[in-house]
């Protein structure tokens, strides 16, 4: 009979075995072929998952989850696991970095993961400058010394599937130059999706920059770097260099006397305009891609970088998504169900208000107020009935337009929460721009037939109703802010009065 190892000994054995396997996998004589490189990356990923599972299982074995020792050890395991994932992303690069960036921006994950993986947003292990120089010469036909007054060989950002260098042209214009080495493209196209391969086409990304710039040409808050087309190819992207700090850098914002909540509101307005009005969306708004610059009207501007993942929304979908938010604001359950069927998820229509507005479809509380106790109990019963197949079916049934909006919205929520903005701000902003997207002025019904006139009349009535509802919500939000300010003022006055009273002889 084989005796059982103690828990810690078993953990150590699993970790050492998996660690040795990982080391050996990195030393195997794999070729540079896409298949071999794919196997090597997959092996690293499997090893990392195995080590992490073993670490959680055996480090916490036998401990009740409500004791201090469990919480202390859990935090340590979170940190170790996050460091392993960071190392995996840095070694495997490409799609793995993209995944790490997304995970780091999620609000639900432990802080050990978000803090550790946040470095992937703008800094990973860079490629040697010799590789970058070869790309530059092969694409632009000249040595960097012939094109630039100076060229920083150290990248200012090395994230995801490309890295960025700072340089100055001969005419003294500052530029940011984005590269990706040739060999990255080969395996990414074969191993991952067409969407990722499109991100590697810098000519398409440059067009996205210009489309976005045209859409926001009258917006004084948004800045889109200008493209230098004569220094841009499929593999090299040269753009105007813009100074700024990451949008979630609260210390910088407060130091520059910029209100973080105001930044959050403007950020939401910009992306709401993309989704509901323009129908052209920047699909990767993690903090490393959005800078706050002190230049601009109102004390700051938002600089939008990295337009590799942009999505042109189908016009029918755009209008239906506007309708969905109108129904969510008004809590029109019949309209929500109808639109859910249009989106292909009619079976799960009752969960759409929870996903987007945080209340149930039969909620009795106001939007932004959270769920009542009875609603929470009812929701738990519904969720218990859900199976993994239901979640999978829901996600697979959603159109691609919906999926990229969900991902974008999750990233925005994370940033807005870091800026300490009220949940009201997001709901009000989305409701406002959904109404703008449905405005009869923006979507006129042509013709003078009876049907056209009737449609226009109904559209105007619905638009006015939605605007009135949003107006009431704004009034409530303003009254809540006023109440907080008054409470803060009275608190200071009371404290001052108490001090004066105590100081009297």
Question: Could you characterize the architecture of this molecule?
Answer:
One of its GO terms (molecular function) is ATP binding. Residues 150-425 form the Protein kinase domain. By secondary structure, the protein is of the alpha+beta class. Among the domains are: 9-121, no CATH class; 129-182, no CATH class. The chain is 60% helix and 9% strand. The chain has helices at residues 7-27, 34-59, 68-92, 95-104, 111-117, 129-140, 144-147, 182-191, 194-199, 202-215, 250-255, 260-278, 315-330, 333-342, 352-357, 373-385, 388-397, 400-418, 423-437, 450-503, and strands at residues 148-151, 157-159, 162-169, 174-179, 222-223, 236-240, 245-246, 280-282, 290-293, 301-304, 310-312. Strands 1, 2, 3, 4 and 6 form a 5-stranded antiparallel beta sheet that branches. A 4-stranded mixed beta sheet has the order 5-10-9-7, with helices on one face. Strands 8-11 form a two-stranded antiparallel sheet. A hairpin with a 7-residue loop joins strand 9 and strand 10 (301-304). Helix 3 runs parallel beside helix 5, helix 12 (260-278) runs antiparallel to helix 18 and helix 19 runs antiparallel to helix 20. The longest helix has 54 residues, at 450-503. The protein is globular. The protein starts with 6 loop residues before the first helix and ends with a helix. Mean pLDDT is 77; it is low at 1-31, 183-195 and 444-459.
| Radius of gyration, whole Å | 26 Å
Number of helices: 20
Q: Percent helix among the residues?
A: 55-70%
Average pLDDT for all residues: 77
Largest sheet: number of strands, sense, barrel closure: 5 strands, antiparallel
Low-confidence region ranges: 1-31, 183-195, 444-459
End-to-end gap: 86 Å
Structural class: alpha+beta
C-alpha geometry:
globular
Question: What share of the residues does DSSP label as strand, in percent?
Answer: 5-15%
How many strand units?
11
């Amino acid at each position: 009979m084989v005796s059982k190892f103690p828990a810690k000994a078993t953990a150590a054995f699993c970790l050492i075995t998996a660690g040795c396997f990982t080391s050996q996998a990195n030393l195997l004589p794999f070729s540079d072929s896409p298949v071999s490189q794919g196997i090597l990356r997959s092996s690293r990923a499997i090893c990392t998952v195995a080590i992490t599972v073993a670490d959680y299982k055996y480090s916490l074995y036998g401990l009740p989850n409500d004791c201090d020792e469990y919480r202390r050890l859990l935090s340590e395991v979170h940190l170790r696991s996050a460091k392993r994932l960071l190392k995996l992303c840095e070694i495997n690069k490409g799609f793995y970095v993209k995944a790490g960036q997304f995970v780091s921006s999620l609000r639900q994950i432990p802080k050990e993961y978000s803090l550790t993986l946040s470095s992937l947003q703008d800094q990973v292990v860079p490629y040697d400058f010799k590789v970058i120089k070869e790309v530059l010469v092969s694409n632009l036909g000249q040595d960097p010394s012939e094109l630039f007054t100076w060229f920083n060989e150290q990248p200012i950002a090395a994230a995801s599937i490309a890295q960025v260098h700072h340089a100055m042209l001969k005419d003294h214009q500052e530029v940011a130059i984005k590269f990706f080495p040739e060999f990255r493209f080969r395996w990414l196209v074969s191993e991952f999706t067409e969407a990722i391969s499109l991100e590697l086409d810098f000519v398409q990304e440059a067009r996205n920059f210009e489309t976005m710039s045209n859409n926001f040409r009258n917006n004084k808050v948004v800045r889109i770097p200008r493209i230098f087309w004569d220094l841009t190819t499929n593999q090299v992207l040269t753009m105007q260099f813009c100074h700024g700090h990451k949008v979630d850098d609260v210390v910088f914002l407060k130091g520059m006397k910029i209100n973080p909540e105001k930044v959050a509101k403007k950020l939401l307005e910009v992306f709401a305009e993309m989704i509901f009005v323009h129908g052209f969306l920047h699909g990767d708004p993690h903090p490393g891609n959005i800078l706050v610059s002190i230049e601009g009207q109102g004390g700051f501007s938002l600089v939008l970088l990295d337009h590799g993942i942009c999505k042109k929304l189908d016009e029918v979908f755009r209008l239906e998504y506007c309708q969905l938010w109108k129904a969510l604001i008004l809590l029109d359950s019949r309209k929500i169900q109808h639109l859910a069927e249009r989106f292909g998820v009619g079976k799960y229509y009752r969960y759409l208000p929870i996903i987007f507005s945080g209340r149930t479809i039969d909620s009795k509380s106001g939007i932004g107020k959270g769920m009542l106790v009875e609603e929470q109990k009812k929701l738990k019963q519904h969720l218990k009935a859900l199976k993994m197949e239901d979640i999978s079916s829901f996600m697979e049934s959603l159109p691609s337009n919906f999926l990229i909006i969900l991902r974008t919205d999750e990233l925005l929520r994370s940033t807005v929460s870091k800026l300490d903005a009220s949940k009201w701000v997001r709901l009000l902003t989305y409701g406002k721009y959904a109404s703008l997207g449905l405005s009869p002025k923006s979507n006129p019904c042509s013709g003078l037939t009876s049907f056209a006139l009737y449609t226009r009349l109904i559209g105007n009535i619905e638009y006015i109703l939605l605007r009135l509802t949003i107006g009431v919500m704004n009034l409530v939000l303003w009254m809540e802010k006023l109440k907080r300010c008054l409470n803060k003022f009275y608190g200071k006055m009371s404290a001052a009065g108490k001090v004066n009273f105590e100081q009297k002889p």
